[in-house]
Amino acid sequence: MIDADRFKRGLVSALLLTLMAVSAAEARLIEGVYFNPRVVASEVPMELNGVGLKTVWRFYKVSVAALYLGEGVKPSAILSDVPKRLEIEYFHPISARDFIKLTEKLLRENVDVGKIAGLQPRIDRFNALYRDVRAGDRYALTYTPGKGTVLELNGTEMGVIEGEDFSSAVFAMWFGPKPLSQSLKKELLGQV
Q1: The pTM is what?
Q2: pLDDT band at 56; cut points 50, 70, 90
Q3: Domains and CATH numbers, the chain
């Protein structure tokens, strides 16, 4: 005779394992780092669009990243006034000073000089938010229309910079004509 309680516990366990397997299958694992399939950032649900690996000299792994887009947002609209989130987890320590130098370089390469001049006070405020990171730290950059661009470090909000024009400029560092990495850009946009 079958023990009804034991049968129910077994059935519940099997269902939980199935749900966990489905959940794990939807999450993306890249270089040992997990990215959730969906996030809610600034009260906006977003779906994982793509993940990618940033390397230097083809073999030195620097970071992994994930791009999330608001529901129904096409990757081609990445530099538009749409909800988006970029999460980057680092494999090595990087100083705040190096982040600032790279930000200034990539903005010069991807944004019109006149536009940068108008954005400079906000760029300076943004650069002041950077902190040194250690291996395993994760920055997140989230833009929500009407709210602005939020920079987080390991889930802690560092600050918010207002304006769609600022968001377009800062996301151009990864998705503009001369991004940090062409291959990473393609991976994040789902073009590979």
Answers
A1: 0.84
A2: confident
A3: 29-189 (3.50.70.10)
